[in-house]
Every structure is written in structure tokens, then in C-alpha cells.
Amino acid sequence: MKQIQITVVLLLAFVGIVAVPSGCGRQKAEAKQQLLEVYDVHGSAAKARLTIDGKEIFITNAFVGQNGLGKEREGDRKTPLGELHIKGAFGLLPNPGTTMPYIDVTPSTFSCSDHWEYYNHVIDTAQLHHQCDGEDMFHIAPEYNYGLITSYNEECIHGLGNSIFVHAKGDSPYTGGCIALDEERMVDLLTLCDTTLIVRITP
User: Fold this and answer.
1) Residue 55: other Cβ atoms inside 10 A
2) Chain-wide mean pLDDT for the chain?
3) What is the pTM of this model?
4) Residue 20, domain member (yes or no)
């Protein structure tokens, strides 16, 4: 009986030694605080500032929705106010080295706006066998050379709007509700940030 007790004590001691390091958050590297602020909005023109751990990486000119800020519904051509999170990245061009989940845009890549289970999702229509009426992303260049998928309307409620991205600039000085940056700044976002990046949009 005494030998069994000693064995149990030793086993518990061993488990304790193993469990403490694995549950100790202090020993893990803390995630970097990444913030893209979109501010100083005048019409569809804005400023964008990226900071990482409080250090300013860049300030640049940006475009927002043609009708400014305050998105409320599908098709209002406004950019949402508040904070958005990043769910992944995509691009017509090859992955520049991001650690985010990266979708290579192909002829069957669509951002779905159908009143369907794929609403507000970037999908491969060939794989899903879905005839999509949404954005044909393969033919939206240079805007979709690089992009980030945001958490806007994460519940995918039909009519609240979809396809709110941070993407590269095109020829127009406005977007349909997204945030547009110079392509080189998009490369910075993809290579320097991960999915903990927060996008904060204020007037």
C-alpha cells in the first residue's frame, strides 16, 4: 500500500512539472498590437496610419466609399464606422509573404452577394458548383491585386452589405464601401501584419 502511495505522489509531481510551463502565458511571446487607423475623412478621401506596438510604420492617403462613412445597407456605397477585424487575405498576384490565410484569386473566385448560404463569403464557385452573381474578383484589377477580408457583417445578414475589404487602389478616387490604399502599402500590411490587425475607421 505504501509503495502505491509513493507511486501516485511521484506521478502527480511529474504531471505538475509538465502542466505548469504549458499553461504559463508569460513564457509565450506576446502578440504585437497592430492597428490600421482610417481617419480625417473628407468625402471619399482619407488618411490611413499603420502602427505596430505603438510605433508608426506609415501614414498614407486612402480612399473610402463614394458616399463617405456610416454603412447601413447593401449598395449605399458607404464605408463602415468603428472597428473591423481581419479574417484573411487574397490577391490576383502571388502571396508576397504574409502569414495570413491567403486566397489566390482565380477565374472561379467570387465574393458572393446572393441571398444564399455563401452570402458575404469569398468562394471558389468551381469547387462549390455555385452559379454566383457576386463580384467576379478575377476581373477586378488592380484593386484586387492584394486585399484583406474584414469582419464586417460577420453574421452574414442579407441586406446589411458584403465584400468590405481593404484593397489596392484603382483608377477611381473612391470605393464602393471598401478602404483602398496604394499597392505598396498593401504589401506592407500583408508582410508586416497578421490576423490580429484591427482596422479602426473614424471621421
Assistant:
1) 9
2) 87
3) 0.84
4) no
